[in-house]
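Hey L., structure's done. Input below.
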Amino acid sequence: MGKLLTLFPLITLFISLSVQGANQQLPSFSELAEASSPAVVNISSSKTVKGRSNGPRGFNDPFYDDFFKRFFGEPPSQGQREREVRSGGSGFIISRDGYLLTNNHVVNEADEIIVSLSDRREYKAELIGSDERSDLALLKIEADNLPVVKIGNSDQLKVGEWVVAIGSPFQLNFSVTAGIVSAKGRSIPNGSDSTYVPFIQTDVAINPGNSGGPLFNLEGKVVGINSQIYTRSGGYMGVSFAIPIDYAMDIVNQLKEGGSVARGWLGVSIQEVTSDFAKSLGMSVPKGALVSQVMPDSPAKKAGLQVRDVIVEFDGVEIVYSGDLPQTVGSVKPGSKIEAKIIREGKTKKIKIEVGQLPENFSAASPSQGNKSNDLGIVVRELTFEERREMKIDHGVLITEVNPEGLAAQQGIRKGDIITYLLNERIRNTRDLSSAIEKAKENSDVAMIGIVRDGVQTFRSLKLTK
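Output:
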């Protein structure tokens, strides 16, 4: 008993020292917040619209208004009339003569933009330029000797590193939240062109009103611009996204020079390379971007890229996931001549490409998810000359019937789909399809099949046996 009593103070001392050591390892953000807050601003914008008289449901942040509209529909109409709509967000000063950076959705189509500093000074801001694809806007206020943020290097940011956000969530001005970098180079396909942005993912608490505010590293340097969150409730759920500052400053320079942004363009539709695809393409590892469609008169077409090519490297940058390609291509200056590495029919090949400029209103078609054969449960026929001409394809067979109990139906194949490829074989007629199926079964029970649906060609793996 006496030994136990002797050990008890030692255990208590050990636990106390351990807690103190852990506390010493946790960073303090107070100095960073004090030094950086003066260069962070609150942004209020207003515009006059004709429409429903209902007020916004997204806490005065347009990003969240869109969220509520998408999931809960339009609010009940109270008639049409002219009304003022106000939006709020955050931003930060990047030059002493009054240039500021924020999100495009904070000031989009605004009639008036008011910038409020932490010392209560207010200025009317001029919109110098904006870029919807990256969700960035450059503003200017008439003032001198303003406090400015320090610009960091987002390329040097590491996963697991501490980061701090300063902004005005729910109109609570100059609030500070902290977290870590969860991932880098995230692509967020959300129906817009934000796939061109290699987002930084964090777990920093970001809420309505934080949009456009800075993300700092522990050195007090801006490494990102808080832009979006993943949410099912309309509020913070632990997944936030920021635009890398290196990417943003390139946009800023272009907006200063010409008021618009030029991005590289390849002209292909792509999809992910799955394990089954990799196997059928003769690849040992599933990586890269699978070309499912090459657009007419595009840089890709002129360079000789073909459907079923897998792009594994572009301008010296490795393409691991399909989402890596739009980000990489978009960052290349239009007119640049680069080299790409592709895998074609199991062989590695290098091709030269002159990158084009992404058209202003361009929106790539999104690939849809997706022989007479009793095994597959489908009936096919050859395309007529008129059908091929109308659909602008030179080969393929049309599926006219699908057995709901068959293998094809169970894997998403539909009536009206056009089969263009099986394995590495072009399918021109029913004989080609039957032959390709038999050949595929000799080597594997899974084959890659090319399908045209609604004018967009995609590839998928198809199980040939139950």
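The longest helix spans residues 2-25. The chain has a mean pLDDT of 81.

-- N.
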